[in-house]
Design goal:
222 residues, alpha+beta, eight-stranded antiparallel β-sheet, 6 helices, 8 strands, 37% helix
């Protein structure tokens, strides 16, 4: 009898804690103050070692469907290396999870997706080391072959799926940290390269790009 009562009390306490957390989430999330900040295009205008090659237009219907607060969709080059960068940025916790895993959308666009892998790398940013967790996949369409590398951002941390991203954003809200989230996707063609060479190009770009992007997020949160 006593054991059953204790179990019910524990369940009740946990339920109350969860309810309280969600009430705090809704209270904080409904009073989000977003100070002025530069657009992603301006903040990422200069990535060391890389030259902006072209901006890629994103149709209005996709901007609306993805509920984007800000985005960047550009191509860059470094000698013979070419990288496409897309970031869909969200400024409030209600929109976390609005981005789609490429495995969901690429096959629907006719791409054949193979060779999925997970990886992790360390990137120094402002005298501190940050871990970047990412997924890669090969996508082929007609005679075109691309290597994609992507992750889900929750303020200053990265995740390979949106479930952990949602949990991290929820935690950030409760702790009073930045509520920013994003989907970051890189790609590079490799018809004339090996997969290893294509991945090396993308990882080099991450090393050069991520400090600029993370500094932008951290400065905006101050």
């Amino acid at each position: 009898m006593g054991h059953s009562l204790n179990k019910r009390l524990i369940i009740l306490i946990v339920a109350l804690l969860i309810s309280g957390a969600f009430l705090r989430w809704n209270s904080i999330a409904s009073h989000v103050h977003q100070p002025d900040r530069p657009t992603l295009s301006k903040a990422l205008n200069h990535i060391p070692g890389w030259e902006k090659n072209a901006a890629v237009k994103l149709e209005t219907k996709f901007i609306n469907t993805l509920k984007l607060d800000d985005f960047i969709n550009i191509r860059l080059k470094n000698n013979n290396m070419q990288v496409s960068l897309y970031i869909g940025q969200y400024l409030s916790p209600e929109k976390v999870g609005a981005a789609h895993d490429p495995l969901t959308c690429l096959p629907g666009q006719g791409w054949k997706v193979t060779d999925r892998r997970s990886g992790e790398m360390s990137v120094p940013v402002n005298n501190k080391s940050y871990s970047v967790s990412y997924e890669t996949m090969v996508a082929e369409l007609s005679n075109e072959k691309q290597l994609f590398l992507y992750w889900f951002q929750a303020f200053d941390a990265t995740y390979v799926n949106t479930l952990w991203q949602k949990i991290a954003v929820f935690r950030n809200v409760l702790l009073g940290r930045s509520q920013d989230s994003a989907f970051v996707r890189l790609s590079t063609p490799f018809n004339d390269q090996t997969r290893a060479e294509a991945e090396a190009a993308l990882l080099k770009f991450v090393k050069d790009f991520y400090p600029v992007y993370l500094t932008y997020l951290q400065t905006r949160a101050e």
